[in-house]
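Researcher: Sequence of VOC domain-containing protein follows. Predict its structure.
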Amino acid sequence: MLVERFKYTIWAADMARALKFYTGVFGAKVIKQNDYVSEVEICQGILAIHGGGEGERTWTGLTFQVPDVVAGAAEIVAAGGSLTREPQPEGDEPPHLAMCADPEGNEIMLSRKR
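Model: Prediction complete. Tokens:
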């Protein structure tokens, strides 16, 4: 099978709010935008944001690797997202996971390289 492109799609009740979140927090670059679907590029990956979402909490499987999950989690909250599980210390190591949700209810995870 010839795969021409790979992207992951999430839902948004408020497209403008979702775009503001992903461009502001993750530095996403908008590569397509219309009333129904927008696409953003993050670290050479494509995230499609489809309108018509209901804003309900949904696990996505999206994970963003960041150098500091505590600082990243604070950025998520400052941008209108929420934490579903605060970063937890692990022995002498700094936290390596933070469970979060974007303002549209899409659950995402922050992780740091171990």
